[in-house]
Amino acid sequence: MKRLARNRDFRLLFAGHVTSLFGDRALFVVLGIWALELTGSTGAGGIAFGFAAGGFALSSIYLMRAPVLRASARAHAQARVVTTPPP
């Protein structure tokens, strides 16, 4: 793990991934707040948040169940093992 932490490319990749995850999760909260400000209704904010989070959850469940995508993920994992340079 320390070897990865010293690798500049990995640190940039990891920082970009963390930033992207933060933005994805912040979208749900911001969408609810935006709906609240537009309508003045807390119910509308909750519904907007629920639809955004629910859509994300349903798409994640669908993608986990898709056999073609699982096979693709397996192939990518095997390719990483094969193409990883020795230490």
Give a brief rundown of this model.
The protein has 87 residues and is an all-alpha fold.
Low-confidence stretches: none
Structural class, from helix and strand content? mainly alpha
Largest sheet: none
Q: How many angstroms separate the termini?
A: 12 Å
- Shape, per Cα inertia axes: flat
Q: What sequence of helices (H) and strands (E) makes up the elements?
A: HHHH
Radius of gyration: 19 Å
SS element count, helices: 4
Number of extended strands: 0
Strand proportion, as a percent range, falls in under 5%
Helix proportion range: over 70%
Residue-averaged pLDDT: 76
**Total discrete domains:** 1
List keywords for this structure.
mainly alpha; 4 helices; single chain; 87 residues
Can you walk through the features of this model?
By secondary structure, this protein is mainly α. Helices cover 90% and strands 0% of the residues. The chain is flat, with a radius of gyration of 19 Å. The model has no long low-confidence stretch (mean pLDDT 76).
Topology at a glance:
Elements: H1 2-6, H2 8-39, H3 42-65, H4 67-83
Helix pairs in contact: 2-3
